[in-house]
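so im writing up the methods section and need the Thioredoxin domain-containing protein record in one place, dumping it here so i stop losing it
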Amino acid sequence: MAEERATPLRLGSTAPNFKAETTTGPIDFHEFIGDKWVVLFSHPEDFTPVCTTELGAFAKLEPEFTKRGVKLIGLSANTVGSHGDWIKDIDEVTGSKVSFPIIADKERKVAYLYDMLDYQDTTNVDEKGIAFTIRSVFIIDPKKTIRLILSYPASTGRNTAEVLRVVDSLQTGDKHKITTPINWVPGDDVIVHPAVKNEQAKELFPDFRIVKPYLRFTPLPKDKTSAS
Ligand code: BEZ
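--- predicted struct ---
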């Protein structure tokens, strides 16, 4: 059962804990996180077209998330039995093998706890008038801190490569004193963190260059090219 959500979830909030049934068995969410990063993503309904493509895509990219110490967990507002039947379709249609857990949130308790429900689009409801669970993505770090929140409309599929890119940016930024610019992908130059003074930047990043006093680019030195 999910706990009540007292305050809005923001970047930096602790990911609320909950217990839930999933396609791989019951979980306590904080125990599930353990010492890993987690991508939690939600779906409006089972057997819906956009969600089918999304789950297949996440399953195909799962090895890349695993390499980065990231666990995937989906959520959809239906039962475990329904999820199981849907997974067969997803694997058939997309050529994937969905093996990460999908939370059964028929009562939308976790969706409420994580503020995933559609507010503005009042037509986005099921036959009982309950708002569908929207397409949310949460990236949660091993300290259980929420590091990214994305909300997509039901009509628009997400971009798994973008979710992975943010993981790369967050992990690289945590490891080194850098931030990442627009459209950054691993291998591109990064930005020296504003808190790092030029003297320290010279030591950390010998090839850094000053474009403006507040905008300093650097390649990541060879031994720092990944987050690990
Ligand atoms: C879909 O996943 O295709 C979908 C779900 C709910 C509303 C509209 C589309």
